[in-house]
Structures are given as structure tokens and as C-alpha cells.
Automatic annotation (TrEMBL):
GO terms for cellular component: mitochondrial membrane. Solcar repeats lie at residues 18-96, 112-195, 221-305. PANTHER family: MITOCHONDRIAL SUBSTRATE CARRIER FAMILY PROTEIN E, MITOFERRIN-1-RELATED. It is a multi-pass membrane protein. Its main location: mitochondrion. One of its GO terms (molecular function) is iron ion transmembrane transporter activity. It comes from the Eukaryota. Keywords: Membrane, Mitochondrion, Transmembrane, Transmembrane helix, Transport. This is Mitochondrial carrier domain-containing protein. It comes from Leucosporidium creatinivorum.
Length: 308
């Protein structure tokens, strides 16, 4: 009882463990190195102007390895701080909102926790979006393959021709994409972890040596369970938000030319109606599964190893 009273009297705090930055940085680099070619294919499929997508050998001409890894330095240079801000702010916000809004006298139900996960995810997205957006703009335009290979020259060109709006093109559209995505993703991911990770506490350190769960429908190592939870959550969320992400990719690679977001939507509708908004869904899911699986498994494993 006294512990409950002390918890209730304690003000809501935001604490960031420095090792979270290390774990998130390692996860960002690992995921990007392994999955960047799939991301390049996704961008070229989504931004191809024609109604029909050409064969892969036309989308990715020779030298193929160089084309597949176009924009990789930009992606790594931005994704390390971006993912660090994202995961660190998510963890801190989750604890903060949990202390403020969840009941202190008994264990909160999953339904009670869902708004906390959503608010924490939205906070993380809005904060990290200032870093993600310039990365997405430059990376996508380099991956598209018609603006050279130098990130420095491209950045100068964007700034000279479009100003700061060009660098942060699509920030609000990105949030429109990722607010529903992260709301669904974190709700599913935290729900899966609560069910399948023995002893998991969304607001405390992970169990160092968890015992097998008798209720789990399979016998898998804890690391593999983290992977399965993350890839299932991200696959479902990616399917729901693909139409908005498709429009975002075209808008960020347009250089501000054309009819804007409304014009992109109309052009897609003319090309193929509802089916046109599913373009790139397969490759997006194929990219999201290893990207999210690798990054979250590395992140969660390092957290468990450190015990934070």
C-alpha cells in the first residue's frame, strides 16, 4: 500500500536512459544496411509516372548495385539521429503519459493503455519528423535516379531553387501518413509484447531472464518473439497507410512542380482508380518486414542485455 501511495504522490517525470540512444543507433544502421535496396525499388515503383510499372531491370539499370544503394549515406546519416530521437522520445513519453493518466491503484488494462501508446507514438513522430523529412526528401530524390549521386549538390540545388520548404517538403503530409501508422503500429506491437513476452512491463525494464510462457502458442526464443511481434504489427499498419505513403513519395520527389498533393491524387485516380493507390504495397511490405524486424529486434535485444 505504501508503494502505491508513493507512486501516486510522485510527479510525472521524463527520464531518458543514454543507452537507449546507443540501442536505437545500432538498430538504425543495421536495418538500413540490410534493406536499403528494397527501399530504392519501392521509391522507383511508387514514383514511376506511367500507369504500368516496367520490369525491374528497367527500374534499376546498370550499374545495379550503385543504383540500389543510391542515397545510402544520406539515409544512414539522418536515420541514426532520427530513430534515436524517435525511440527515445517514445519511451520517455510513454512513461510520462503512463504516470499521468493510468490508474495507480491497480494494473491498467490494455484498453486503458492504448491511448498512452498512441500519444507517445504521436509525440515521437512529431519530434523526429524534423529529421526524417529532409532525409526522405533527399534520399528519395537520389533513389529516383534522375538527380545525380551527390547529396551535397542535391541539397544545395533544393535550397537554391525551393528554399527551406523544399528541404522539409512533406513534413505535415508525413505526419498525416505516420499518425495513423504509428497509432496502429504501437498499439499492436505493445499488445503483442504484453501477450507473448513473459513478464513484459510497458513502463519498466525488461525481464533479464524471462521464463517460458505456458500460454504462448509456440516455443520461440524471446528474441524471435520480438521479431514476430514487430513484423506483424508493421505489416498490418503498412497495408492500412499505403495510399497516403504513395502520395507522400510522389510529392517529396516532385520538387514542388506539378499540381501539388491534390493533383497527384487526381492523376493516380485517372491511371487506375482505387487500384492505383495500392501501387508499391507489395514491395513496401517486403521492405517494412525486414527493416522493422531488424531494427526493433536489435533495439529490444540491446535493451534486454542492458536491462533498461
Amino acid at each position: 500500500m505504501s508503494g502505491d501511495l508513493e507512486l501516486e504522490a510522485r510527479p510525472a517525470t521524463v527520464y531518458v536512459d543514454p543507452f537507449t540512444l546507443v540501442a536505437s543507433s545500432a538498430s538504425a544502421i543495421s536495418a538500413r544496411l540490410c534493406t536499403h535496396p528494397l527501399d530504392t525499388i519501392r521509391i522507383r515503383i511508387q514514383t514511376h509516372p506511367g500507369a504500368l510499372v516496367p520490369p525491374l531491370k528497367q527500374l534499376i539499370p546498370k550499374p545495379r548495385l550503385q543504383n540500389l544503394y543510391a542515397g545510402l549515406p544520406v539515409a544512414i546519416g539522418f536515420s541514426v539521429p532520427a530513430l534515436s530521437v524517435y525511440l527515445t522520445s517514445y519511451e520517455a513519453s510513454k512513461r510520462y503519459f503512463g504516470e499521468r493518466f493510468l490508474p495507480k491503484d491497480n494494473k491498467p488494462t490494455l484498453v486503458q493503455q492504448l491511448p498512452v501508446f498512441v500519444m507517445a507514438g504521436m509525440t515521437a513522430e512529431f519530434l523526429s519528423g524534423a529529421i526524417w523529412t529532409p532525409m526522405d526528401v533527399m534520399k528519395a530524390r537520389l533513389q529516383k535516379g534522375n538527380e545525380g549521386t551527390s547529396a551535397t549538390k542535391l541539397l544545395k540545388k533544393i535550397w537554391r531553387e525551393e528554399g527551406y520548404k523544399g528541404v522539409w517538403r512533406g513534413y505535415w503530409l508525413s505526419n498525416l501518413v505516420f499518425v495513423p501508422y504509428i497509432s496502429l503500429y504501437w498499439s499492436l506491437y505493445e499488445s503483442f509484447k504484453t501477450h507473448f513476452i513473459p513478464g513484459y512491463d510497458a513502463y519498466g525494464p525488461p525481464p533479464v531472464s524471462p521464463s517460458p510462457s505456458p500460454t504462448a502458442p509456440w516455443t520461440l526464443p524471446i528474441t524471435a518473439r520480438y521479431t514476430l511481434c514487430s513484423v506483424t504489427a508493421c505489416s498490418l499498419a503498412a497495408c492500412v497507410t499505403n495510399p497516403i505513403e504513395l502520395v507522400q513519395s510522389r510529392w517529396q520527389t516532385s520538387g514542388g512542380k506539378g499540381e501539388g498533393v491534390g493533383g497527384i491524387v487526381k492523376a493516380l485516380w485517372r491511371q487506375g482508380g482505387v487500384r492505383a493507390f495500392g501501387r508499391g504495397l507489395g514491395i513496401r511490405v517486403a521492405y517494412a518486414i525486414p527493416a522493422n524486424g531488424i531494427s526493433m529486434t536489435v533495439y529490444e535485444s540491446l535493451k534486454r542485455w542492458k536491462g533498461i
